[in-house]
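User: My advisor, Dr. K., asked me to get a structural model of this assembly before our group meeting. I'm new to this, so sorry if the format is off. These are the inputs:
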Amino acid sequence: MRVMVLVKASEDSEQGNYADHADEFVAMGKYNEELLKAGIMLAGEGLTPSSEGKRVAFGDEGGTRVIDGPFAEAKELVGGFWIWQVSSMEEAVEWLKRAPLRGTSVELRRIAEVADFEGQLPQDVIDGERRLRAQSGQQS
Amino acid sequence: MLPDTAAKRRVEAVWRIESARLIAGLARATGDVGLAEDLAQDALVAALEQWPVSGVPDNPGAWLTAVARRRYVDGVRRRVTFERKAAELGRELAEAGNPMDEIEFDAHVDDDVLRLIFTACHPVLSRDARAALTLKLVAGLPTEQIARAFLVSVPTMAARVTRAKKALGDAGVPFEVPVGAELAARLASVLEVVYLIFNEGYAATSGESWTRAELCGEAMRLGRMLAALAPDEPEVHGLVALMEIQASRLPARSGPGGELVTLLDQDRSRWNRLLITRGLESLARAASLSGSEVSGPYVIQAALAACHARALTVADTDWTRIATLYRILGSLTPSPVIELNRAVAVSMADGPAAALPIVDSLAGDPALRRYHLLASVRGDLLFRLGRHAEAKADFERAAAMTGNEAERAHLLRRAAACAR
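Assistant: The format is fine. Below is the predicted structure of the whole assembly, which you can bring to the meeting.
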């Protein structure tokens, strides 16, 4: 199974203040190396401060409105993520416990597979959704 | 007392993470992979008894190591006592130089795990034994799961693992990564095992289930481990690329009724883009290490898979390049199966008439006499040439030869279509 690991932003990460966190960077680098050597890390990225971000709000009746960052409540924001391939949610939890993190909580979410939609959505809807996703992936 | 399920699952999760490093460290210290595995299993049993009550320790790897180490020292003492050779105790422990002290989570660990992989995949063992031992020792899978994956009974698989461990001991296989000229051959043996495991998962050759995706996942995990532990080997990255790209197609390989959907009929929007991206990155790494996209068999096969992965539609496929890659692959590792694949590519690039002579030249090959795909490909070419009666006969012949239910149904559908 694949899981997404959502790490929350912090006040410092929102300030783009990395200088005070050199030790954590080194520790995180080592941790990522362990994930790689275990063969479970499919992807992992850190996000820049939300001041560089945008939000697009969709109206109930359609229409869109663009809101510039920064966004309030650093603890509600995502600061980075991993995608792991593991044999069970328990294994993901055990890996996550080894992460060099302090004073934050990290969310583990299983990534949906085709089987999760089957029976609930018509097959052509599932296929259509995936086709769009594939094309956008191909262009980038 | 049996632990409850949730606690047992936690212990198993920790085991998946720790077992390879634990067994590898013990094997280096004792010089005996079989003994190392026994000691590690003892530690696992202790964990299953104690952790559900006491909780998982902060450093479970160190805990498991400490238990295994105690068992080892106890074992040496007991043996020495039985034989009433008290003097030997001092000598034996001194000779060993307290090897257990060396087991730490340090720079040795990566080398130890790599040694473990090479030892489990030693050519002195049969391919099946190598695969079983690798899944047991390196992937940390329980015997029951390996048995299920390979469609044999648990006692059969347990016996296979035991025999393999004994064979390594009997042959005096050293616990090391080979160097020099031996490395290439031994690495090929490792990659062969990983890809065998992958293929067991990718296409079951018997039984009802078309894919056993768990084995694909295990093989990919092993491949990625190897790529991280031996980053300078192009063929390792080639194999990883090949598996990532092939696995990207798993969601598209079976229809709603579980029937086979062949590559060209697959809904490409179902292909997993993340795995394709990863596969193309690994292929690029392999190519930059060796300076070529055609350096070794796995790199070439990955390049072939990449031709399909890059094509958003079947019509976009570069069949001429695919035919060329098969020709190069065939010159490197001659095989009638590769030649058959080349024929398919030629038929797509230049039409079925150009490919039929290649297929017919393989008809007498004894290696393909019971190979259903030869008849299946021939049926397809004849169908496209409008020779429907001959095509029908070939599809039926192919259906009779395959051991896979889903594939048989697919071939019989094609045979029926010829009659219309």
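One thing worth pointing out at the meeting: The CA atoms of residues 347 and 355 of chain B lie 5 Å apart.

User: Perfect, thanks a lot.
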